[in-house]
């Protein structure tokens, strides 16, 4: 445990008020130290998302042992510059999740997929409730065919409400902003994957099942999306998946 008192050993992490280890540098974090710690996406996350000083001395949240972002960076950042590994991992993941939702051309684009970590996506302007930008953990762009939003979970569940709307859960929010982004950027379709690391009992799969295969539930939750057709809502209901991967910190 980190201590600044004279005579006590100084280590490369501290223990937060919630009793979680928080490393002081990405080079010391078990999941980050063998990745590209100089990448702009990771540097941005280190600078913008920090604990309050009283919790963990204002250190970046991604340096916590409980960080979902650290797990996502560990699994996906090596794919940025490794085409064979990118092809293998994404083919398995996307065929498992969206075999019938993604167009055939999207699978052909996997070797050239572009990965964006923690993008900031605005809500559609037709939504009148106050709402800031959404930040999925990963955006996978497959040519001009499709975009796949990935929301990672581990120890904490899917949010069942937003700051300004008690009826808007995180899944429908990401469906909303993802489909709007795809339409604005000229993609044929969008999909949403909730990826859980480990086997902690949380609500992620339950909330995905609230909308998967249920276009009417999506339509009811997005009444202001008047530009979406029956086929669009049907596709959104097919383009939802829950997948579980091992927790690399277990």
Write a structural description.
This protein is α/β, with parallel strands linked by helices and 250 residues long. The chain is 33% helix and 15% strand. A 5-stranded mixed beta sheet has the order 3-4-5-6-7, with helices on both faces. The protein has a two-stranded antiparallel ribbon with strand order 1-2. Helix 8 (215-221) crosses helix 9.
| Gyration radius from CA atoms, angstroms | 19 Å
What is the arithmetic mean of pLDDT?
A: 95
Number of strands: 7
Q: Tell me the β content.
A: 15-25%
Low-confidence stretches: 1-9
The computed structural class is: alpha/beta
Helix content: 25-40%
Describe the main β-sheet briefly.
5 strands, mixed
Q: In whole angstroms, how far apart are the ends?
A: 20 Å
**Strand ordering within the main sheet:** 3-4-5-6-7
- Helix and strand pattern: EEHHHHHEEEHEHHHE
Number of helices: 9
Q: So what's the overall shape?
A: globular
Features:
250 residues, alpha/beta, two-stranded antiparallel ribbon
Condensed summary:
The chain has nine helices and seven strands, in the order ββαααααβββαβαααβ. It has about 250 residues and is an alpha/beta fold.
Itemize the secondary structure elements and their pairings.
Elements: E1 13-15, E2 21-23, H1 40-48, H2 53-56, H3 68-76, H4 83-98, H5 104-108, E3 114-117, E4 138-142, E5 146-153, H6 170-185, E6 189-197, H7 204-211, H8 215-221, H9 230-238, E7 240-245
Parallel strand pairs: 5-6, 6-7
Antiparallel strand pairs: 1-2, 3-4, 4-5
